[in-house]
Specification:
5 helices, about 60% helix, globular, about 0% strand, about 110 residues, single chain, mainly alpha
């Protein structure tokens, strides 16, 4: 059996959350093109795969790999975190009400 190249599930997860590539790029702090490349498996997938293997080897979660103190975050990261929280809230509210094609305004 031949090893298949890993496929990105980013687009599937992004669509499930109801956000655009542009919105996701702003939350993550990368360009929209980077998100598109990740979704199409053109770049980034090999690093994700390595991080998964690293976490498996160390029996940890991704967040455990770095000392991440939220109180030391710059204001810009706090804004992105708040935006993502708002996106999740809008998604959950609309999911419960059965609405589709969520529009999110910043």
């Amino acid at each position: 059996m031949k090893n298949e190249k890993p496929r990105s599930k980013i687009a599937q997860l992004r669509n499930k959350t109801g956000i655009t590539q542009l919105e996701l790029s702003r939350i993550v702090g990368v360009t929209e093109t980077t998100i598109a490349n990740w979704e199409k498996g053109r770049s980034g997938i090999e690093w994700i795969e390595k991080l998964i293997k690293l976490c498996q080897a160390l029996d940890c979660q991704l967040e455990d790999l770095i000392d991440y103190d939220l109180s030391q975050e710059p204001a810009e990261k706090e804004e992105k975190k708040a935006s993502f929280s708002k996106l999740r809230q809008v998604y959950k509210t609309n999911k419960l009400s059965g609405k589709k094609n969520i529009k999110y305004k910043t």
